[in-house]
């Protein structure tokens, strides 16, 4: 945990951000949010509430149509690309959007290579995480031949193996079997990163979050607080989560 002047360092600061897609679809509207270093935050909301769009904005993968985002004190731009790559990990909702190398092993080595990490060091890191997450047996397989759960696990390993300061997870437990689900939740629980998880699954929230940002179908924040939000059934109904 990093403290400055008696308070946590701001990992992410978003001020009045909105995003409209090229076809005119509103992604999110007028959201302001601060996330402190070391926080575990869940973006909770129904499908279509803008969770994935907000993940993309807060991670710097897309730029807001209006408003500003700062990540670890930096505004996302071409000058800060390498810094952000080293400090941010993103797991997409659909692993097929992320996995594109010929083999799982090459997937694990891709990001270290892009960041200039020596090959021997990258191999050592990849082997360590392959053993830790029990994927040694599929290292030579092409990602497109893996099950959905295996793909999800690989995408998470690729994102956490360099121990990013901030980890974004978009529906990490969606469409996986029980064993993979438990493994993914264990990964999140043990991580030392600042973690922002987008989900609509109420039952996993107490395990992975200390703070809930509740999004409604109108693409706006309906509530921002602790786990007590889960006990407010009326609020959850209004947001469309239950």
């Amino acid at each position: 945990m990093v403290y400055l002047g008696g308070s946590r360092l701001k990992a992410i600061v978003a001020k009045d951000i909105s995003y409209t897609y090229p076809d005119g679809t509103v992604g999110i509207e007028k959201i302001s949010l601060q996330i402190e270093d070391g926080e575990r935050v869940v973006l909770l909301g129904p499908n279509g509430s803008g969770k994935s769009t907000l993940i993309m904005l807060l991670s710097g993968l897309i730029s807001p149509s209006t408003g500003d985002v700062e990540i670890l004190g930096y505004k996302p731009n071409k000058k800060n690309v390498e810094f952000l790559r080293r400090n941010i990990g993103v797991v997409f909702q659909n692993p097929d959007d992320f996995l594109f190398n010929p083999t799982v092993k090459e997937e694990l080595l891709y990001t270290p290579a892009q960041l200039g990490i020596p090959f021997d060091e990258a191999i050592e890191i990849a082997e360590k995480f392959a053993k830790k997450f029990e994927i040694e047996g599929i290292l030579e397989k092409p990602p497109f031949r893996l099950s959905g759960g295996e793909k999800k696990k690989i995408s998470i390993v690729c994102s956490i193996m360099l121990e990013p300061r901030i980890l974004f997870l978009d529906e990490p437990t969606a469409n996986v079997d029980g064993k993979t689900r438990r493994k993914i939740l264990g990964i999140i629980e043990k991580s030392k990163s600042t973690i922002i998880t987008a989900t609509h699954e109420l039952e996993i929230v107490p395990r992975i979050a200390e703070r809930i940002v509740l999004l409604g179908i109108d693409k706006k924040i309906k509530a921002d607080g602790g786990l007590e939000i889960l006990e407010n059934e009326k609020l959850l109904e209004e947001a469309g989560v239950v």
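The chain has eight helices and eleven strands. The two ends are 34 Å apart (CA to CA).
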